[in-house]
Amino acid sequence: MSALVATSASAHCGACGADGGKDHPHDIVETAEQAGSFGTLLAAAKAAGMVDALKQKGPITVFAPTDAAFAKLPKGTVAGLLKDPAKLKKILSFHVVAGKVDSKAAAKAGKAKSLLGKTLKFSKTRKGLKVQGANIVSADVEAKNGFIHVIDTVLLPPAS
Description:
The chain is of the alpha+beta class. It is built from 7 helices and 7 strands, in the order H-H-H-E-H-H-H-E-H-E-E-E-E-E. The protein has helices spanning 28-35, 39-47, 51-55, 67-71, 77-82, 85-93, 103-109, and strands at residues 60-65, 96-98, 111-113, 119-125, 128-131, 134-143, 146-151. A 7-stranded mixed beta sheet has the order 2-1-7-6-5-4-3.
C-alpha cells in the first residue's frame, strides 16, 4: 500500500479555500459535510459507527458516493442498510483505503486494498479514472487526514 501514497496533488474542498492536506483545516467528515452532496454517506457512516474512523489522523482515502449514487440503488436498499450496521460497515469499509492515494497513484498502481481487505481495481478510460466500474467524478479533494474521490456509484464488495 505504501507505493500508493501521494505526494503532489493540490485539490481542495472548495468550501474553505484551503489548499494542501497538511494546511487543510477540515477532516474527511467535515469536508464531506461542507460539500453538501454526501448526506446519505454521512448518515450511513454514523449508523455503521464509522464517523470516528473517518475523522482519525490517517491518512486515509475515501471513495465517496454522492447522494445521487445512493439514489441509484434499488428502492428500500438504503433504509435496509441503515438498519443493518454490520453489513453497512462492510460496504463502507470497501470504500476506504489506508494511506493518501491520489488519482495518479491509483491509476499507476491499478489496485489498492480496501479497509475491508478486498481489492479495489482502477481503470483508465477516455472519460477519466474508474474504481470498480464507478466513475471518479471529482478526484483528489484534500482533507487534513487524506483524500476524497467523489464517485457516482456505491461500491459493493465481492462476495466471499
